[in-house]
Amino acid sequence: MSVRVTQNMLNNNMLRNLHKSMGNMDNLQQQLSSGKKISKPSDDPVVAARGMFYRSSLMENDQYKRNVDEAQSWMDMTDSTMDEVGNVIKRIKELLVYSGDGAVSAQDLKTMGSEIQELKNHLGTLANQQVNGKYIFSGTDTNKAPYDPTANNGKGDFVSTNSSPINLEVSQGIFVTSNVNAQNIFNYPDNNNNMFKVIDNILNELNSGRTATQFQIQIDQQYNQLLAQRSALGASVNRVELIADRLDTQEVSISDLMSKNEDADMAKVMTNLKEQESVHNAALGAGARIIQPTLLDFLR
Amino acid sequence: MRSTFHGIEVSKRGLFAQQSALNTTGHNISNANTEGYSRQRVNMETTTGLPYVGMYTSVEPGLLGTGVQADSIQRLREEFLDIQYRNEYKRQGYWDARLETLEKMEGIMNEPSDTGLQKVMDQMWQAWQDLAKDPTDTSARAVVRERSKAVADTFNTTYKHLQEVQSDLDNVVNVKALEINSLGQQIASLNNQIANIVPHGYQPNDLYDQRDVLLDKLSKLVDIKATQSTNGMVNVTIEGRDFVNGMTSQPFATQQNPTTGLSELTLGGAAFTPTTGYMAGTLESRDQILPNMLKRLDVLAVNLTKEINDVHRTGVSLADINNGTAQGLPFFVDSSTQTANGGYPKGAATIAINPEILKSLDAIAAAKPEAGSTPVGNNEAALAIASIKFKVIAAGTGPNDLAESSTLDNYYRYTISQLGVDAQEATRNQANAEMLVGTVDNQRQSVSGVSIDDEMAEMVKYQHAYSASARVMTSMDEILDKVINGMGRVGL
C-alpha cells in the first residue's frame, strides 16, 4: 500500500522545511554580519579553541612589540649618550696631548683645565641621562641620579653602585636587558679610579699649571672600555632589531592563521545565502501550491 | 416471507447507514487539525438475510438481503507506531534538555570573543608586562589593578550566572514533575471514563485519542510503557515502576534534598531517578553538566590566584620599599575574609582584590627583594607574574588541582572546547531525534491523519449511496402506489 499523504503531513513537512531553511539563512546571516565562520564553540570546537589561542598569541605578540619598543628607546638613548661621552673623552685626550707641548704656558694649561672642568660637568649630565623620568645609568635605582655633583668634596662623582640589569620579556621566555651596566662605563675599573676621578687628577695637574700627559694611558683605558661597552650594546641593539623584525612577521602570520581559521569566506557565504534564498522561495512557492487545492476546490 | 414494505425498510437502513458514514466523514473533517485525532471509519455490514421462500417451492435456497447496518466506528491507528514514536520522543526530550542547558552555558561563557574570560585574562597578563616595563609608573599599576579586578569580576559573574541556570533547572524539575503527575491523573481519569462506556459495547474513539495524546506528552518527559488492561484501560509504568494502574495513578512529586537544597523525584513516595527523557536530561544538566563547569571555573580561579599570590607575596611593593619592611601581601584574597592577609580565594565566586591594593596602588609588588635595600626599578616580581601565563601547572589529586599538568590558558581552552564538543553532540543528537520523531509521526499521520481529499471522496461516495437509497425508496413508493392506487380499478 502506498503511503497516504494528508494535508497535515504536507503542512508539517513544509513547516519543518521552512524552519530548516530559515535556520540555515540565519546561520549564513550571522556569518555575514560577524564575518566569522563560527559564533559559539559548538559551531566548531576546534576552530573555537584555536581562535582563542590565536587571539591570545596576538595580544602576547603585541605586548612583546611594546616591550621591544621600550628596550629600543632605552638602547637608542644609551647609545647616543655613550657616543657623546666618547666625544667628550676624545676632546680630553686631545687636550692632554696638547698640554704636553712645551710651548704651552701655565696660563694656557689653566684655560685647558677650565675647559676640562666644563667637559666633566657635561659628562655628569650625560651620566644622569633619563628616559621617561628614569635614570638609565643607575641600574634598577631608576629614581636616583647616579652622578652626584656634590660628591667627593663638591667635585662631583659617580655614586651609583647598582649594576642590576632591567630585563624585559620580548618573546616567550626570552629576555633582553634594556639598560647597560653603568659600573663598567662610569665606574671603571673601580670607584677610586673611575672616569671622573681620572679627570679630577688631570684637573689637579692642569690647575696647578702642570702638564697632564701622564694621564693619557688612563684616559685611553677609559676610552677603550667605553668603546668595548658600546660595541656590546650595539650587538644587543642588533639582537633586539632582529626580534622586532620577527615579531612583526609573526604578527602577520598569526593574523593570517587566525583569519584562515575563523574568518568566513564572504564570497562563499554570499553565494550560499543567495542559494539558500532561492531554496527558501522555492519552498514557500511549493507550499503555496501544494497546500492550497484540495478535492474540495474541484467539487463544485 | 418478505413483507410488502421490505424494500422500504432496506432503503431506510441504507439511508441510515450512509448518513452515519457521512456524519463520521464530517467528524473527520472537523477534526482534521485536532492534535492526536485519528480518522474514523464506519464499518458497514449487511444485516442478516431472510430465507427466501418462493410461491411454489418452500425449499428454494437463498437468502433475501435485508440491507445494511453500521456495525462499528473504527479508529484507524497503528499501535506499533505509537510505541516507536514514544521511544524516539523520549530521546528527543533528553537531548532537548541537554541542548537547552549547553546553549545557555555557551552564551554565558561567551568564547571566543573580545569580552570573554580569555580576553580579560590576556589583558591582565599584558598589564603585568607593562608594569614590568615601568615598575614605578602609577598608571601602569592602576592598569594592573583594574585588569585584575576585571578578571575577578568576570569569574564572579560567570560563576553566578551558571549557578542561576542551575537553580533555574531545579525549578524546571519541579514544574515538570507537577506536569507528569497531572498527566498521570488525567490518564487515570480517562481510563475511568472509558471503563464506564466500553462494557456497554461502545467504542469511545475520541477518548482513546485524548489518552494517546497524553501518553505522547508523557513519553517526552520520561520513559514510559503503556499496556492494555481490562475494559479499554491502559496501565502505564515509568521505567518499570507503577505509575497509572487502571483508574488510579501514583503520585509523581519532588522533595527537597536537605543537604544540597535541590529537588529530588519521588514516584509513589519512593525515590526515583529517570535515565532518559526530558526529565533525565534536566537532572543531568543540573547535577552533572553545570557542576562540572562550576568546578572547572573554581579550579582555574584557585590556581590562577594561587600562582599570582605566591609570587606577589615574595615580592616587595613600593610601599614596602619606602617603609623598609616587606608585608608579603597576597594580590587576590577570598571575599569571605576580605582582609589584607586573608586566605587565598577558595573559588571563582569569591575572588577579590586585596583591600590593601584597592586602598593604595603602591601595595602592588613589582620588585623582588634585593640584598640591602630594593631599588624601585626592580621589575622581577612583575616579570615573574606575567610569565605565569606560560607556566605549566603540575597535576595533582587535591580538590582544586588540575587533572593533567597544563598551563592555565590550555586548561581554560580545553574547558571551552569540551563545552563546544558537548553542545555539538547535543545539537546533532537532538536534530537526529527530532528527525526520527518527525519520520515516525509522518508514518503515524499516514495511517491516522485526516486527508481532506480522502474525506471528500468518501463523502461523494456516501452521498451518492444515500441518494441512490432514497431513489430505491422512491421506486418502492411508486411500486406500492401502482399496487394500492393503480390496481383493481378496472372500468373505473
UniProtKB/TrEMBL annotation, chain A:
Residues in Flagellin N-terminal domain copies: 6-142
Keyword presence, Metal-binding: no
Keywords, in A-Z order: Bacterial flagellum, Cell projection, Cilium, Flagellum
Annotated coiled-coil segments of the chain: none
Domain of life assignment: Bacteria
Major site of localization recorded for this protein: other
Record's subcellular location: Bacterial flagellum
Protein family per UniProt: Belongs to the bacterial flagellin family.
Protein name stated in the entry: Flagellar hook-associated protein FlgL
Organism the protein comes from: Brevibacillus brevis
Annotated gene: flgL
Automatic annotation (TrEMBL), chain B:
InterPro entries from the UniProt entry: Flag_bb_rod_N (IPR001444), Flg_bb/hook_C_dom (IPR010930), FlgK (IPR002371), FlgK_helical (IPR053927)
Flagellar hook-associated protein FlgK helical domain span: 102-332
Coiled coil: none
Principal location listed in the UniProt entry: other
Subcellular location(s) of the protein: Bacterial flagellum; Secreted
Flagellar basal body rod protein N-terminal domain span: 9-37
Listed transmembrane segments: none
Pfam families, per database record: Flg_bb_rod, Flg_bbr_C, FlgK_D1
Family as reported in the entry's similarity comment: Belongs to the flagella basal body rod proteins family.
Protein name per its UniProtKB record: Flagellar hook-associated protein 1
Native source species: Brevibacillus brevis (Bacillus brevis)
Taxonomic placement: Bacteria, Bacillati, Bacillota, Bacilli, Bacillales
